[in-house]
Amino acid sequence: MDTQTLLILIAIGILAGVLSGFVGVGGGIIIVPALIYVLGMTQLQAQGTSLFILLLPVGILAVHNYYKSDQINWKFGIIVSLAFVVGGYFGSKFALKVNPSIVRIIFGVIMAIVSFKMITSGINTLANDS
How far apart are CA 29 and CA 111, in angstroms? Predict the structure, then answer.
């Protein structure tokens, strides 16, 4: 691995970590596109690598900060985490059987829908606050 690639990987990790801690986005929303478009990975390589990255350290220090501020709903978190394990298993099995281009399209559509809803919700909240 050359120095440039190492620096790019560090930058991706810092950006994903800052955004994850700041607005709670899943690191995959940052990591997957960065690995594809900056480092040239395939969709499935980027997804697998992102899941590996997030496997253990997924925001442990950020979670600690939210815990200290009493901003975690533990019951909801445990239920979603357990369901996430099951969903992740079946989702990965499905993704590995489908054409990678279809997976990329689905990923992009989900990101576009979520982005649109977040932007319009923020605009509506701002309009109602004034």
Answer: 8
| pLDDT score of 87 | 83
Residues 51-81 have pLDDT tens digits of 788 766 666 777 888 889 998 888 987 887 7
Give the chain's radius of gyration (CA, Å): 17
Domain residue extents for the chain? 3-129
Residues in the chain: 130
Predicted pLDDT of residue 99: 93
Cα torsion at 91, 97, 98, 103 (round to 10°)?
A: 40
Dist CA 129 CA 28 (whole Å): 32
